[in-house]
Amino acid sequence: MKIFAAKVEEGIEGQDGKLSVGPVYRNLLSKNEFPPLDYDMSTAWDLFSVSATKYPDNNMLGWRSFVKGRVGPYLWKTYKQVYEEVLQIGSAIRASGVEPGCRVGIYGSNCPQWIVAMEACSAHSLVCVPLYDTLGPNAVNFIVEHAEIDFVFVQDKKVKELLNPDCRSVSRIKTIVCFTSMTMEEYDKAAEMDIRPYSWDEFMQLGRKNPSEIVPPHSFSICTIMYTSGTSGDPKGVVLTHEMLVSFVRGMDLFMEQFEDKMTVDDVYLSFLPLAHVLDRVIEEYFFRKGASVGYYHGDLNALRDDIMELKPTFLAGVPRVFEKIYEGMQKALEELNPVRRRIFDALYRYKLSWMNLGYKQKYASPLADLLAFRKVKAKLGGRIRLIISGAAPLSSEVEEFLRVTCCAFVLQGYGLTETCGPATLGFPDEMCMMGAVGSTSVYNELRLEEVPEMGYNPLGTPSRGEICVRGKTVFAGYYKNPELTRESIIDGWFHTGDIGEIQPNGVVKIIDRKKHLIKLSQGEYIALEYLENVYSITSIVEDIWIYGDSFKPMLVAVVALKEDNAKKWADVNGYMSSFSQLCTLNQLHEYVLSELKSTAERNKLRGFEYIKGVILESRPFDMERDLVTATLKKKRNKLFSYYQREIDALCKNLAARK
Question: Where are the beta strands (DSSP E) in 599-644?
Fold first, then answer.
């Protein structure tokens, strides 16, 4: 059996009230000690500035132009051009009175200006703070106040939101710089609020007139504060230092050196995951380190395939929902084939898969199958794709297997959090044993499992299961202005992720559960189930509600225990004379309950992915007789799932069929 991780410490059985902990695992490349970092790479500024000197004429940042309202071809800025722009923007920031150590907000979609602003922050020891409104309706307000931000780079579409009088944080902001330009109305409104507004070109001109020497950061300087959602309440500010980002990049260098296929300056990454999330940020940092190119999607995820065909990327990273859509599209195309061609495709699929399962690399498993069928699949992904990485939530084995066989590219899963500065584990290419798994621990981290007795998970059992704990060079410094939460999360140097993992005998990790009832849908968005249940329970027809989310699906469904009186009032108004239990089977009542839940969601300003898409109606409250709740009426989620699984599966299948 091939081993993918080194066991460097044995597990410890709990005693005197202490929890059992599993063995400590390291990457095989750091079995004895963490490798040294490169002497010339200690900060994120080094990653970019060294490449700007080394690869000045390489394409760095690409974007699609709009010609007469239609999306045009990709345009590019070289490393040299971006570097010069960074110097001018950095000088303008300093000319605006911003001093090293201050926090600078960036609010908008991925684009070259986002990166220029980010690199300008690094050049002058400023702390980059992404503002991201999908963390909740008041998230931007909270982050601006909490991080004490008075200077913001903002996308033109977001200017109106930032200048909204209802935006409590607007009184703190002193300067805004638009990625493009603002309307005269927006200029006047900003001036009325004592905010200095600049277009991008105006700010560049300010920098040219007031050149400033860069003030490069130290490795221990804070690079960014990334805010991430919690189970409820306000977002948490994750503090990441320059050394953490550099450690991730250096670890990826060492990891990639093991394999035959190397990354080169000709590689191209399509960026569509939000730069306000850590995964896209660290991938782009790695591409900049290698002198490679990053092209940005034009802003419409529904038209992502058009960007893929235009850019022809070699590397694609996304959340499971993206790859599920690709899979669904390919399955639909297969269904349209005539029966003979479909049987040929299926036979070629099984033939190549059998050789891959025997250990052959995917490109050698069946060149004939690739030539006859699968090169056409690869062509739909631009024709040059070499590596696909899925993260943020589990990718179903069915989709992963299909992509591995048909895309003629490496397909990997990884696992990580903002708090681990991106992937804490990563799969290996061409290793079929990693199907459904997230790989082994990264080069500069250690990993172990801790017992979760209330859920029956024991790291010293067979298989080894428990809460994933991570320690190492890429683990965050703490939560900004929240030492109490930091102490709860980092114990004896180990960050407790809240995710339940299972470690295979070969050191490969699988994610199997969540310690708290915070889940990710397949598009990578966090959902706080108990919080949503509290919100939806105020709906007049709802007696109680249990919400179910699956990390392999993009939607929420719920079992709703109805208030009998209100349900019967609806029946009287609508002319139904059935019993209460029979009412619960009516499609009309299902639609009414969904509309009422939607109204509750709208009133409480829930996000689209927090809306309930389907319901199962229950005439009985959740009770102890069926072992669905505890003596204190807390929901037993595992029991609820087991009890309603058949109905949930049928409901989800029906919802998927309607799409």
Answer: 612-618
